[in-house]
Design a protein that fits this description.
Strand content: 5-15%
Strand order of the largest sheet: 1-2
Structural class: mainly alpha
Number of helices: 4
Largest sheet: 2 strands, antiparallel
Distance between the termini: 54 Å
Number of strands: 4
Helix content: over 70%
């Protein structure tokens, strides 16, 4: 009985551990979604900068008149406003991700309270137009268009740097999630073996009790028949 109690205690401990790790895995998946939200916005901002650069190259050529440059500049300015709007409005829940607000995030990816169960991420990403240096750029004349090319190249490099930071965190979180999946599977298997052993033992003991009851009933029945036989012999 003591061994069985110990087995059951271990099995219940494994069950609790499995439940905690499953929650930690969900946390890691939520954190991946957090990073992917930022990545989606950064991808759009990168596309905007590439399009703005194309427009600047067009406007830099004297094959376009000032009137035609003004048409190009209208699209250029609208794209610049959208670039900034994306940075200001990218949130995960109520948390801004790209407006330059410095924040430290602790993602709980383990089942205990130690530092080994957390992944920390410091985020100060700022992809607003002012920080990228693209606000105030203008394509209304060829010289302005030419000078804007260097600023756009720097902005694209900045965006790529921010994407690399988020990408590295996402890679780590995905690795943590995969590790948790394997760990959960191993613990579930161990719990199943111990729980099944307890069930088999319980069934065996129940069957043994049933057999003993049947034996005792048979013995009692035979004992009751002995006086009856003796009386028939006397009669």
């Amino acid at each position: 009985p003591n061994a069985n109690n110990a087995s059951r205690a271990i099995a219940e401990g494994l069950k609790a551990q499995q439940s905690s790790l499953e929650t930690a895995q969900r946390n890691s998946e939520d954190a991946i979604s957090f990073v992917q939200t930022a990545e989606g916005s950064l991808n759009e901002q990168n596309n905007i900068l590439i399009r703005q650069r194309e427009l600047a190259v067009q406007a830099a050529s004297d094959t376009y008149s000032d009137t035609e440059r003004e048409f190009l500049n209208k699209e250029f300015q609208q794209l610049g406003e959208e670039l900034d709007r994306i940075a200001q409005s990218t949130y995960f829940g109520s948390t801004p991700l790209l407006n330059g607000k410095r924040q430290t995030f602790d993602f709980q990816v383990g089942g205990d309270g130690t530092s080994q169960s957390r992944i920390q991420f410091d985020n100060d990403a700022d992809t607003t137009a002012s920080n990228l240096g693209t606000d105030g750029l203008d394509l209304s004349d060829s010289s302005g268009a030419r000078s804007s090319l260097a600023d756009l190249d720097k902005a694209i490099q900045q965006i790529n740097g921010v994407r690399a930071t988020f990408g590295s965190v996402q890679s780590r979180l995905e690795t943590a999630s995969n590790f948790l999946g394997g760990h959960i599977e191993a613990i579930a298997s161990a719990h199943s073996r111990m729980a099944d052993t307890d069930v088999a033992d319980a069934v065996s003991r129940a069957r043994k009790g049933q057999v003993l009851q049947q034996y005792q009933a048979a013995v009692l029945e035979q004992a009751n028949e002995v006086p009856a036989v003796a009386l028939r012999l006397v009669a």
